[in-house]
TrEMBL record:
Protein name: Tryptophan 2,3-dioxygenase
Gene (UniProt): kynA
Keyword Iron appears in the UniProt entry: yes
Pathway: Amino-acid degradation; L-tryptophan degradation via kynurenine pathway; L-kynurenine from L-tryptophan: step 1/2
Gene3D superfamilies with a match to the protein in the record: 1.20.58.480
Family membership: Belongs to the tryptophan 2,3-dioxygenase family.
Length: 292
């Protein structure tokens, strides 16, 4: 046992007073809680079940933290778009790497929600009304920025001016994949003009003419290393996205079975259909071509 009896004494230099700093006019000692607005953040959980069910806080925190991570994913992907458009590939790759780590955290979070049993969820599910994760505008924004655009989705947010404005803006902009293909064209790769001039408001669809472009990159990686590395980063990103979708599907299935979603979707059936969606189809298709 130490002389302090197991207590760690506070060091003299630790700040104890916050607010205006009398020793430095015009400066403020900012506390951790004030910087993070913890009063607002920690008071933003409002269970609606009556009487309040113990497990509803888990359900709320799970979804709120997911929305915070999605906010950061969107922030990073929009920066990736800008870097690719400016031929600044290194920070674009750094952004993609960061997104991949966030995706892993989002996927791991499903294991926490999976501790919510069907009988526990049934105690408060009816109180959720028509609210549903299907209505997450940030999730839709991430899909849009990656190229899975669906103008009909914007109609779901007629009630939310902020969400509608953001999705409309992203609908009109080139996706991350569009910007990468334009980057390749500017750096000597034979990307079809039809792809470069396509209507970016529409979802990207499989283009067989891109396969020779990617085959050359993969089979001559020593000459096209940066493009090759970016291709693999995008494949990682899509694979992580699909793993997240799968964990979402299985968590919903183990919690409510095949019941309809609270927002009116078919639930598990709708989520299973999303597993067929792809952002970068040519990056997967080219694997069949390589070495053949």
């Amino acid at each position: 046992m130490s002389e302090t009896g197991g207590l760690r004494p506070l060091e003299d230099g630790i700040v104890r007073e916050f607010g205006e700093d009398s020793s430095r006019p015009g400066r403020v000692n900012l506390s951790y809680g004030a910087y993070l607005h913890l009063d607002e953040l920690l008071s933003a959980q409002h269970p609606v079940s009556r009487p309040v069910h113990h497990d509803e806080l888990l359900f709320i925190v799970q979804h709120q933290t997911s929305e915070l991570w999605l906010k950061l994913v969107l922030h990073e992907l929009r920066a990736v778009q800008a870097h690719l458009a400016a031929d600044d590939l290194r920070p674009a790759l750094k952004g993609l790497a960061r997104v991949k780590h966030i995706q892993r955290t989002l996927t791991d979070q499903w294991s926490v929600l999976a501790t919510l049993t069907p009988s526990e969820y049934a105690e408060f599910r009816s109180f959720l009304g028509t609210s549903s994760g299907f209505q997450s505008d940030q999730y839709r924004a991430v899909e849009f920025v990656l190229g899975n655009k669906n103008p009909a989705m914007i109609e779901l947010f007629d009630h939310d001016e902020r969400a509608r404005a953001q999705l409309t803006e992203l609908l009109e902009q080139p996706s991350v994949y569009d910007e990468f293909l334009r980057y390749l064209a500017r750096h000597g790769h034979d990307v079809p003009r039809s792809i470069l001039e396509r209507d970016v408001r529409q979802p990207h669809t499989f283009c067989p003419e891109l396969l020779p472009v990617f085959r050359r990159i993969y089979e001559h990686s020593h000459e096209c290393w940066e493009a090759y590395e970016t291709c693999e980063e995008l494949v990682d990103l899509e694979e992580n996205f699909q793993l997240w979708r799968f964990r979402h599907l299985k968590t919903v299935e183990r919690t409510i079975g095949v019941k309809r979603g609270t927002g009116g979707s078919s639930g598990v059936k709708f989520l299973r259909a999303a597993l067929e969606l792809t952002f970068f189809p040519e990056l997967y298709a080219v694997r069949t071509e390589i070495g053949s």
